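Example 641, ligand zinc ion.
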Amino acid sequence: MLIPHKKFNLLVVDDELIIRESLAGWLQRDGYQVETADHGAQALEKAAAKHYDIMLVDVKMPEMDGLTLLKHIKEQNPDTAVVMMTAYGSIEDAVEAIKQGAFDYLLKPFDLEELSLTIDRLVQIQTLAMENVVLKERVAKIDRFEELVGQSEPMLQLYDTIMDVAQSDATVLITGETGTGKELVARAIHAQSPRGYAPFIAVNCGAFTEQLLESELFGHEKGAFTDAKFTKKGRLELAHSGTLFLDEVGDITMKMQIDLLRVLETHEFTRVGGTIPLHSDFRVIAATHQDLLAAIQEGTFRRDLYYRLNVVHIPVPPLRERRGDIPLLAEHFLVRYAAETNKKIDSIHPEALEAMRNYDWPGNVRELENAIERAVVIGKGRQIQLADLPFLGPTDRSAAVGRSLEEMERQHIAQVLEAEGGNISRTAQVLKINRTTLYHKLKKYGLKTCN
Amino acid sequence: MPPPPSIGLVPLGSVDQKILRHLKTTLPGILPVSVQLLKARPIPLHTYHIVREQHNSTQLLEYLAQDLPPGMFKVLGVTGVDLYIPILTYVFGEAQIGGDVALISLYRLSQELDGRLAPPHVFWPRIVKSGLHELGHTCNLKHCRQPDCIMQFSGSLEKLDQKNPHFCDYCRIMLNDYLEQQGITNVSER
Ligand SMILES: [Zn+2]
Ligand SMILES: [Zn+2]
């Protein structure tokens, strides 16, 4: 049985309050995060601002009916699985919906077993899809050794902290926005520490389902589950005498939190399906972009685990708080990508550099790196121009391979915005999102209207 | 050591005293609680759905929560009528997550898989298991995927019959966390 990742988001769309409430309440009991919308437009608005894995949509609704909503969702959020909800009278509509890409339909009122089976099946499919994406990403950025770059005051402080912390064996919690380089900090601590010659084993906790994470960490014995054809060592074992890096530790389920706490306390564990206790000596460095104290308040993160991890806390500053480092970083990436692509590009136009310094970089260093990589690829002369930078100039789709969804979105919005001469209403129409959502996204990505 | 927290059993409508007494003696063996039998309350008419011929479980829970007997840690309502929530055909019970009240229906639990009346050795364990499951919800527990845990979701009698009346290690830890948060310490490991 596949166990859902705790981040599964569901949206219930129904015009009847009583249905929304009772269904949302029931699904919450299964541990899903559930939100509701009372009409199609609201559902689309919500889906534009946030990703939902599964939507349960009523067929019969005033104004925008379920079938129309389905069509929009399939265009706007093709990764969202849609389950139609229907009464006996409108089964034909539900069947039509399946033809148009709905995953399944449920007859109101639902049978307990049927509801949970349908959702379980979907979670299973969505989980597999998610794992494929993760695998692809992993292949796409096969570790090349990278280092921390920066001479700004916050970075100098960070280097000091790293050197201090490296000498001890204390558990470290690294916090910071995505793309700030939390893993680089962890690697630096490891490299400077007495464990530096032993392995550095990283686990991205957010990338696995509970079951997979369990077997990744603890390993499994042959035959422990259907796919366990061989005995496999877990990463806890592999990290012996080295450092275990738990990335996105805020994403793990309550059950895994309990298991992890136990291991951190005793350093003993058994493989999945095994009985022999194993011992491993490793140092733990954890990282998260989440606010764990808030998660504790919400009851989704254990206080005891938090204290166990947060012996030393290292916050990594976002790029916008160390703008002084932007030219240095840009230069650093320019040298690398120019060498990789064999192109003779060796400088950045002052105008382009200025624009980079003024931009907020919500994706932080990683976003800057991607921007430079792309600029090198599409650049024609020896100098990177303002027009080569995706957040201001038009984009070339072929260069966008392997980038994050967020960045694709930002580029796409920037492109449409320019094509529409900076007109907000027309841009929103083309993007099929409403103006509020568009404003929200413009702000998020630091995009400016041309007029 | 402080006395264990009390669970109040409230019959809604007429309920066989033997069943209530069975719950009163069984639950403290599994949860660190004492159980008190409280006065029966009538089932309010507005919770009945004429077409479905069932009672609205959410509304019955609200009714139960309206006037809570003092000094109770949790209240478990027990009723003989069939329960539904609007989106589902029926439910065995319902509880407010992290709330004060839980509710179980004996209606479906009392039947054999073929619809005949179930004998006590089949019927009674189901009542205990349903009660435990719903009380677990009032202690903030969600559905659990561990095999052989009472907090596993069971939508059918077959699945309910397969379960054992106990919490897995994880649910027990989270249950203890909850009890501690509520200021109930010295919880014995039972
Ligand atoms: Zn339940
Ligand atoms: Zn459990």
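Summary: The pocket of zinc ion (ligand 1) is lined by residues A 29; B 133, 137, 143, 153 (CB under 6 Å).
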